[in-house]
Amino acid sequence: MSPTPIPLADDPKWTDVVSAIGTLAAAVFALLAIGATMWLAHRDRSAAERLRAEDQVQANRDREAADQRLREEREAADQRLREERADAELRSRRERQMVNAGLLLQRISDLQPHFDLIPQRFVNGDEEMKVAVRSLQRGAQTEALALENRDATDLYQTLTNLVLSAGPGPGSVRPVSSNAAWLTRTTGDLSRYARYVRLRLSELIETGFLVDGAVSGTPGTPGNVHKDVPVLGRQGDEMWTPMLLPRGWDADTATDPSDPQFHPAR
Predict the structure, then answer these.
(1) For residue 23, what is the DSSP state?
(2) CA geometry: angle at 185 spanning 199 and 193, to 5°?
(3) Domain extents in the chain
(4) Sign of the dihedral through C-alpha 198, 203, 209, 210
(5) Is the model's pLDDT at 257 over the cut of 80?
(6) Model pLDDT, residue 1
């Protein structure tokens, strides 16, 4: 009796092969899906980080730009404030200057009728003349110092010194043997220099400054080096005339009948 044969395993079926391949493919697909998901997540995370970085850079730029605008606005506001203060100070200065110059013009005007008496009766003159002279002196010690223009102050103080030096008394330059011609010329010198100072003060009121050479009579020459001023003790009969005539000199001369250049209206 022959032995019974051992049964062999069944051959793999095609369905099993397909199933195995499907399982493997699914695993591979799952791995690919996981990898893709991870890559996409990484990409999205990188993109988000990049956007956050760009947003941060833009925010920094915006903040710097805002800070710069704020600084510029503050600087512009400060500049406007400085300009407004400077403008207000300039207006205040001009107002004070105009007021003080106007007061000095009035003091000179009050003395104008007495110029012919000053060289003759300075000490024993009438009370009205003395009051006018004292008023002129007060102007030299008050408003003239507040003109904020050295040349204008110098002109007015020089006029005051001429008036005080013209009459008899201490400090006078009047010659002992003064005659009618000297008295006439000195009266004319005082009147003309007073006119010159008045016109220069009017110029100061109008423009806020004096032309170059207002004191010296020569543009470019400082007044502390040379002064265009009548020398009361000089020889000769010709009245003083400024080297640099101010605007309005001829018109003002037409209002002073005592001036040799006065011409009656026709």
Answers:
(1) H
(2) 15
(3) 95-253
(4) negative
(5) no
(6) 55
- Please enumerate in sequence order all residues whose Cβ is within 8 A of that of 83, keeping only pairs 6 or more positions apart, or say none: none
Please provide residue 264's backbone torsions phi and psi, each rounded to the nearest 5 degrees.
-60, 150
- Token output for 116: 């012919």
Tokens matching residue 240: 């003083």
Contact (Cβ atoms closer than 8 angstroms) between residue 119 and residue 143: no
Question: What is the DSSP code string of 147-170?
Answer: SS-HHHHHHHHHHHHHHHHHSSST
pTM of the model: 0.70
Residue 169: pLDDT over 60: no
Side-chain-facing half-sphere of 265: CA atoms under 13 Å: 4
Tokens for 118, please give them. Answer: 């000053």
The Cα–Cα gap between 204 and 28 comes to 102
Answer whether 164's CB lies under 8 Å from 137's CB. yes
**Secondary structure class of 83 (helix, strand, coil):** helix
Contact 192, 240 (CB under 8 A): yes
3-state secondary structure of 237: coil
Instruction: With residue 184 as reference, give the H or E element that holds it.
Output: helix 180-207
Q: Are 104 and 135 spatial neighbours (Cβ–Cβ below 8 Å)? A: no
